[in-house]
Amino acid sequence: MAAAEFSGELPPVHFPPGFLWGAAAAAHQVEGGNIHNDWWAWEQAGRVKESSGRACEHWTRYPSDFDLAVSLNHRAHRFSVEWSRIEPKEGEWHDEPVQHYVEVVDALRKRNLEPIVTLHHFTTPQWIASQGGWNNPKIVDAFGRYVERVAKALKGRVRFWATINEPMVYVNMHYLEGIGPPGVRDLRQAFRVTEHMIQAHALAYKILHAHATPDMPAKVSIAMHAGFFVPCRPWHPLDRMVATLTDQVFNVAFIEAITEGRWIAPGIAKVRMPQAKGTLDYLGVNYYGRQFLRAGKGGPGQWVGQGCNLDHHTRQVTERTGMGWDVHPQTIYHILLRWKRLGLPMFILENGTWMDDDAARWRYIARHLYAVGRAMQAGANMLGYCVWSLMDNFEWAHGFGPRFGIIEVDYATQERRIRESGRKLGEVYRTNRLDPTP
Ligand code: GCO
After folding, report:
1. E-assigned strands of 148-191?
2. Which end of the chain is more exposed for a tag (fewer CB within 10 A), N or C?
3. Is the pTM of the predicted complex or chain greater than 0.90?
């Protein structure tokens, strides 16, 4: 879709009745008091400037947080279950947190919010992290045992699952850039971790399906961070090669593994993974912006090139978020049409932004959502859209500075205040209609 299509006399887009409108969040970012996982240990070791601490106290405040979502016409909510609460020490299983998540799901259902449950969202119990974490093959079965407990407890209550949130972002952030625990920058480990995540996903898929019931069939996906890699210097053959290769490794390899059962870790290993074949029921898509890549030797964490955030893309990048990320709504349209070829329904599980100015946040959301609507007109089969995020929260290595919420959180008092962007989005959710934003 050309940029010009976004301006001028464009019609509104309409979304079908029953479209799953919601917001997304993740345990460690909102719950508070998650003291048994590797991120907590990382924070306590002073590796990041702020600790997640009490975060948004969502662990106890979830009922009123869900009331706010309902007041904004939400019909779905994505959250994650925290493995380290359920198994804080190896083999030591706690029922109380399991019961808590059952209550969370019931609280959602009572409010007509469709739960979307993520099973791993960047945090790993410290007991296994200290044994090598996702680099240790033992994690696959350990994850399976945890998933088994959750699936049993939530039997008949949950339809939509996301096994692992953004596996490739996890690998990149924790095993290539080293900005999250264990802070490793090693290509070999990165591929091993990816392979274990594929196996863990496939195992979880089978467990979730084994516990599904006829009136609550399981729909299982990952939350895929849809990367869109642009050569920093479009005329430069090496930059172009880097962008293509990165696309293969970051976007294509994992999806091929869990659809076709073929895992190709370029240059490192070639493995058939028959058990992973066909373990995707829908495609969960997270999208934020494009990444610019430049060939170069880079650091140990940069395998064929490096991300480039320099200002010399002024001709290509017209706007940036508070994180410095590129804003490019048309790209979500292209991504959805690209993945349509899988023949599966798709679900936007994350899209949103931190902007200092809330009007700019709304503009970002509205333009992306409009592009999703256009992709649907062009044949993309979409189940729903979850904005990231319901409320401001702990943004990993960046601490509490970035504010992605459609609801503002005052961390001193834990007061919530709905932002104008949240109200405007709520109107779209209510009417299933969105007018173009120039
Ligand atoms: C993700 C991250 C979220 C981030 C969000 C904003 O799934 O990408 O899991 O935890 O907070 O993406 O950066």
Report:
1. 160-165
2. C
3. yes
